[in-house]
Fold:
Amino acid sequence: MDTSAAGATEPAGPTSAEPPRPADPATGRPRMTRPRARVATGVAAGLAEHLRVAPWLVRLGFAVTSLIAGAGLLLYLWLWALTPSEPGETRLTRRAPIAWILVGAAAVCLIVAASTGGPVVDAAGGAPGAWFGAVLAGVALAVASGAWATFIDRPDPDRGPRTELAIRVVATAMLALTAVVLVFGPLAYWYPVPVFVAAFAAALGIGLLYAPTLVAQWRDLTEERTRRIREEQRSEIAAHLHDSVLQTLALIQNRAGATSEVARIARAQERELRDWLYAGDAAVDSDLGTDLRDFAGALEIDYPVTVDVVAVGESRERASGELAAAAREAMLNAARHAGGEVSVYVESRPEAVEVFIRDRGPGFRLADVPGDRLGVRESVIGRMRRAGGSATVGPGAGGIGTEVRLRYPSPSEEGNRG
Structure:
């Protein structure tokens, strides 16, 4: 009747991917949730773990109590509607093809209706036999299969729209065939009114098969309209802030001076506001240019420095790479020892990625740095050498300041050199 992937062969304790369920302080038992890996809905497995009994006992209890005026079925549906899924990062999975099971059950009911239908009336005379109830049950199961395929299976990557379409085609064919057999078969002569009602129910079932699709499309259109309204509002807010707040922050920076405390705070606020207005959700491991811009913003808060980052070309280097780490160390040295204005230029070419960090400080020679100062030697030059790249430190343009040049070859160039 349900339910979940939990079984007697599974480990009792929580796995590393799924955190332990919080316990109810009143009973000491885990709060009832439905597992993310389940057979169908996870109700029986979740209730079994909550009660600390075997899942098959819970399933048997649902089946037996369903014979008592459908009490077990009502309880099952109530728990399915109100019990949340357990928290976790893994996606929901269902092993049982419930939609196809419902289609099969509908086919069985319709076959039973065809085999039991005939010139048999009850003692009162003129009443249809068991075939009428079987037809209605088959129609209901077919409609339920379409609803399950649309609302449950369609978002599942293991099934998706193809399964939904196949379910709908098979169920439609079954109901259409049922209606034709009822109207043109011998039952229409013996029971005209019940046959009309059953055939109408089959035709109505065909319409209800496509109702979930219309509901899903309406929901998608509503969500799209909501997103569009939000984007329009966001654009209006961005335009207003650009014309007022951002220009005010830029004016504060120009009036206060690039290295003053007020200018640094204004520049940091401007950067955060621009990121909020124009930047999308950043990936967990962003590209090199995005990472260096974020790091530049942090430096401007901690040091009296203005850092401009320019990225050219399609970035292939990740923020977690050695090149990014060496570039951040060079930027930190420039902010700490030179201050003022620092320029960072990132150029991505097919054969290599290069990063130039230039400052306008007093400059220095690498040979004059004490041997125990390993920031440049190990964190920049040594890091790039170990990663297969190169790093050079020299005077800036016109002999002013310092320029650090980092170069990291592409994998194809490394292979050609090897």
Remarks:
- Residues 99-280 form one domain.
- The longest strand covers residues 340-348.
